Amino acid sequence: MIFAVVGPSGAGKDTLIVGALAARPDLRLARRVITRPSDAGGEDFEGVTDAEFGARMARGDFALHWQAHGLSYGIPASQFAGAGDVLFNGSRAALPAALASFPDLRVILVTAPDAVLASRLAARGRETPAIVRDRLSRAAFRLPQGVAVTTVLNDTTPEVGIARLLAALRSDAALSHTFDAAVPMASPPDRKPETGPER
Fold it and tell me: What is the model's pTM?
């Protein structure tokens, strides 16, 4: 199963994704290609120039690609190969294209109140005040019609947010449901011994 984790800047998607991956070793995160320096901080991504990104897009390397905040984002098709559940940090505006490529895609919206978003954006110090205002203005971006979304409210501690995301990632989680209450942290599943090389 493929999960798209989307939401406004400052919602805490990266933090929740890292926590979910630690709790569920069977999950895989699709690594994004972004037109910014690799040492810019935040998630683990591949930084490329605009020219490199354009060349890879022309070759058809990306299963998904989009633009946001003056940057280009792409996810190589190779990131979706193999067995097991895969999740990726996506864009709300790119969901129609993502659903066209993956009709069974499950969409999880991570969000938080405006005051919490503003506080988190200010604390991370990566954006100018003007960019922070622009990102906050996009927080109310309407999702495309007809998209079934499971909502995770990340308005408290990281531990609570991670537990809510893990609940949303369950294969039997109800679509169009909002996880906004206390959810017990699930124990990570037992892993079967691997016979191949580590990846």
Answer: 0.77
pLDDT digit string (tens) for 49-79? 999 999 999 999 999 999 987 899 999 999 9
Bridge pairing between strands 33-34 and 71-76: antiparallel
141: number of CA atoms within 13 Å, CB side?
Answer: 21
Sequence-distant contacts of 77-83: CB under 8 A, at least 24 apart:
79/30, 79/31, 80/2, 80/30, 82/28
Structure tokens at 76: 């190589």
CATH superfamily, domain at 2-29+84-179 = P-loop containing nucleotide triphosphate hydrolases (3.40.50.300)
Of the candidates 87, 66, 79, the residue with the CA atom closest to the CA atom of residue 4: 87
Backbone angles phi and psi of 142, in degrees to 5 = -80, 135
Q: What pairing do the DSSP bridges indicate for beta strands 2-6 and 62-68?
A: unpaired
Looking at the DSSP assignment, which residues form a beta bridge with residue 33? Answer: 46, 74
Domain residue ranges in the chain: 2-29+84-179
Alpha helices in 39-85 (DSSP H): 50-59
Instruction: Provide the token pair at 107.
Output: 């969409």
